[in-house]
């Protein structure tokens, strides 16, 4: 109950209504005290007029008049003459004097609170105007016991009435809040749960029906969000289906192109000058198409297998990669160098790390070959207390600006004409699977530097997502 919106609203309503009644209580008690004192002045005046009408009133009648007026003595000033009309023994000294002709509201409230908190019996003097202009001034001396008892009784009745009013008001507000706010909010929550069960179903998207402006705006925003999410899910499903179809096509196309690649080897043995001139271009085109199919198939896998981490000699990995690339250099003037301790080992999956290094070295070789200028590719290894770093650098022309902006984005970060930009994406994913990251450290006319970071401890913190430098 206390955790619900309606329950808390009910409690707050009771508290605020009681606070309002307390603010009303003090002026009410002050007004009650004022009326009480004025009524005693009026009674005292009536008693004094009875005495003035008959000077022969005996002491017993005078005492009865004072007892009915609840005062000790009465002084009435008429025609500038001050007369003690009725009197009786005063049990104590007068503690305070109150002039009902001059007290303002703040003074009345202060005096009322003072009387409520002071339980000791006192004797007070009260001044006021006689009713019906029966004189210039009337003054009485009276005890405070009856006044305080009457004020407490009145206060209890006011508080009880306030409590009843607050309960009734709170009940009505509770029902109103449940009908106007809580029930529509619960309906929205129920709709959200219904939509979450099947977000692809457009029939489950909310339709705004709330009559309250704020709730309707919330429902409208929720409808927009759900519509966009449903469309995104549908788009992803279509892309997944398209990816599956592309993977199948790429697989079959790769097989066809591989066969065609074998046939082109015989074209190079032809004596026809035109065939000899066009055969290398045909071979290069078919090779690029085969590479594109292989990259698409690799990227289209649902997920790469988890790396099987072992301690692998870095020289073994780098040696296999460089040996294969040296054979692919052909007539180009490209040299390879290695710079790392001969005994350096890294914790990695040999197959996956071979693919990463092959992608980086092959990209560097192709970039230098495209320029026709001599170049160098270097693989260096470094060790720190927390990580291994493998740097692949080249003296090529650097990466194009567009490639730098989308370096690790599939199909957008291609570094050469005809490339799909999948090699670096796959390489970055493989390195992340090892708990490390691949980054571009530098690129420009002086060359390009890529760095592979591998953690030395299995519990090392994973680095931020890779991004272009």
Summarize the structure.
With 469 residues, the chain is an alpha+beta fold.
What does this structure look like?
By secondary structure, the chain is of the alpha+beta class. It has 3 domains: 5-169, no CATH class; 223-294, no CATH class; 306-455, 2-Layer Sandwich (Heat Shock Protein 90), CATH 3.30.565. The protein is 56% helix and 17% strand. It has helices at residues 5-53, 59-69, 105-117, 145-197, 213-267, 273-299, 314-329, 350-371, 401-405, 423-433, and strands at residues 73-78, 81-86, 94-99, 123-128, 137-143, 310-313, 334-339, 345-348, 375-383, 387-394, 437-444, 447-455. The strands form 3 sheets. A 5-stranded mixed β-sheet has the order 2-1-5-4-3. β3, α3 and β4 form a beta-alpha-beta unit. α1 runs antiparallel to α2 (59-69), α1 (5-53) runs antiparallel to α4 and α5 (213-267) runs antiparallel to α6. The longest helix has 55 residues, at 213-267.
Question: What labels would you give this structure?
Answer:
469 residues, five-stranded mixed beta sheet, rod-shaped, disordered C terminus, Heat Shock Protein 90, alpha+beta, single chain, 3 domains
